[in-house]
Design a protein that fits this description.
Length: 391
């Protein structure tokens, strides 16, 4: 006859094991304590004070951390703000260094820069591109949209608007052409002379030197280049530029993308047409050369990199190529390329005064010497236009 018992559950076995372990631990502890008390030959080890000390130290550090957690977060925030401020300061210093740098261009006439302390503050520098043979054009501009004499100085002082005719030197410095410009400058005091040999096929080089020279004299927010056969409303131009004053790298003008002309002998022929892909391709977007504006950072960029900026056959293409690959904002500003009357005239009547007007077919005002005054009378903003602009 077999005896059968109920199987013991796993839970019961686990309880018995734990109880056995605790009983053994209690017996061992009592034996060790009794032996320690009666055995004077062994050193007595007291770990309780050490544990208390460690515990107190940990509690103290925990309280310190908890108490100063708010301060630490505050310090982190302050540090973050300081880093941001430092970044801005470094950026400003880099730009000031760029503007103050001295570089020499290839050719006879190296650029001489003033120290940063001597830079004249301005809102905008308007450089009117002109040539030795264009005296009548210059006179037509002086008689219409460009202030003269004391008004020109007042415009610069009160509004920070600098307007100058931009011209270089002849191939024979000191010759009759240079002396004629010297005499004109003595009379009007409205020239910016570049250390550059004048020539139609040197417009890209002249443009580089204009921006580099202007940046070395004036610390302006914007630098404008305009041809001497274009009509400009300075007040409207200033109002347009003022909208983009907070933009660090901005390129403003009437953006276009004309064909790359590979045929020799035609106007605007591009010898390096092969760089722009297959025959019949177009240029990248760039501002038309009659008038455009760039911010200070871009003018400084041109100044710094003057010797290595590539020059294409067309000046406006060259300028556009210098900004390809940079973080530059292109602004297609149609008010800077209005037509001559009746186009700009009806826009005035509608209250949309143009910043600049010219004829596309002539790349400027056709017969500008004869027509500049008529364009000004029909499309001008009035004598008070520039003086009423709040910059």
């Amino acid at each position: 006859m077999k005896m059968r018992g109920k199987p013991v559950s796993g839970r019961t076995i686990l309880v018995i094991c734990i109880a056995s372990f605790l009983a053994g631990s209690l017996f061992t502890s009592r034996t060790w304590t009794w032996s320690s008390i009666h055995d004077h030959s062994q050193p007595q080890i007291s770990i309780i004070p050490q544990l208390e000390s460690v515990t107190q130290d940990c509690d103290h550090k925990r309280k310190l951390v908890e108490g100063k957690s708010g301060d630490i977060m505050g310090e982190v925030a302050k540090t973050h703000q300081a880093i941001q401020s430092l970044d801005k300061t470094i950026s400003t210093l880099e730009m000031e260094l760029a503007v103050a740098r001295t570089r020499q261009t290839n050719g006879q006439f190296p650029i001489e820069r003033k120290s940063n302390q001597n830079l004249q503050k301005a809102f905008v520098v308007v450089g009117i591109n002109t040539a030795f043979s264009s005296k009548k054009r210059r006179d037509s501009v002086r008689e219409t949209w460009m202030p003269r004499g004391a008004k020109l100085k007042k415009l610069e002082k009160d509004k920070g608007v600098v307007v100058r005719f931009v011209i270089g030197h002849s191939a024979t410095p000191g010759g009759v052409l240079d002396r004629a410009i010297d005499a004109e400058e003595a009379e009007h005091k409205d020239f910016l002379r570049l250390k550059h040999v004048e020539g139609y096929h040197e417009l890209s080089t002249k443009t580089r030197l204009y921006f580099s020279t202007a940046v070395s004299i004036w610390d302006a927010d914007f630098y404008v280049k305009v041809d001497d056969d274009v009509h400009v409303n300075l007040g409207m131009l200033m109002s347009t530029l003022a909208r983009y004053r907070s933009k660090p790298r901005i390129y403003i003008g009437c953006m276009k993308s004309g064909p790359v002309l590979s045929q020799k002998g035609v106007r605007y022929h591009e010898p390096e047409y092969w760089k722009f892909g297959e025959e019949g391709n177009k240029y990248f977007r760039h501002a038309t050369g009659q008038i455009y504006a760039i911010s200070k950072d871009l003018a400084a960029y041109i100044s710094i990199n003057l010797p290595i900026l590539h020059r294409y056959a067309n000046e406006d293409v060259s300028l556009g190529s210098w900004f390809i690959g940079l973080e530059v904002e292109h602004v297609d500003e149609h008010s800077m390329c209005c037509g001559t009357p009746p186009d700009c005239e009806w826009k005035v009547r509608m209250g949309n005064i143009c910043a600049a007007s010219f004829d596309w077919k002539c790349s400027g005002i056709c017969k500008s010497v004869e027509r500049m005054k008529d364009v000004h009378n029909s499309c001008g903003e009035g004598d008070g236009g520039i003086w009423n602009v709040d910059l």
